[in-house]
Amino acid sequence: MNLGLLISLLHYRWNLSIVAELHRHNGAKFITLHKRLGASRSGIYRCLDALAAQGLVRKNPGHGHPMRPEYLLTPAGRTIAEPCTELLLALKTHRDEQVGLKKWSLPLVAVIGVQETRFGELRAALMNITPRALTLSLKTLEKQRWVKRHLINAYPPAVTYELGQPGLIYWDILQAFDSIPPHATAAG
To answer: What backbone phi and psi angles, to 5 degrees, belong to 28?
Structure first.
């Protein structure tokens, strides 16, 4: 799993939506993104800057028709456009955008995968996550039934997490990110 790419993509709420919009319409103007997504202007600017820093989005170079798109996907951005669009469509279809587009939800689904995973393993895999953020994210995912929590009656007691049915749906979609080589999305 290209976990670093997934984490950086979901760092800001609108990144995934912007990539999908640019893919769907072969580029877009800033104002069009702002109106279609319903995000704040500063939020769109922050996401576009972050996506440009990752080498996924660029400003349209040169001069031309006033209706030309202002922002385009780079070749690296095009490699992730289909999985982003499919993931966003699934989240919309299942009405899971509120949960799925939070910073750590989908990276947690990716790490848990098809095996039972302990808290420490999740924290180690997601190095930048704080214990509090991990706990709150797991509680949210458990409430939505994306994740099941199991208490193991041993000494010392342990807790493991596995994906529930909704989590498995998204885990299947996230497998498309496996086919993207890490260097394909490196900024540069």
So the answer is: -165, 160
CA distance 27 to 74: 10
Could you read off the pLDDT of 80-114 as tens digits, one per residue? Answer: 999 999 999 999 999 999 999 999 999 999 999 98
Over residues 121-168, the pLDDT tens digits come to 999 999 889 999 999 999 999 999 999 999 998 888 889 999 999 999
In a domain, 76, yes or no: yes
Amino acid at 69: P
- Are 68 and 103 in a shared domain? no
Q: Are the CB atoms for 11 and 103 separated by under 8 Å?
A: yes
Q: How many domains does the chain have?
A: 2
Of 18, 118, 123, 30, give the one whose Cα is nearest residue 73: 18
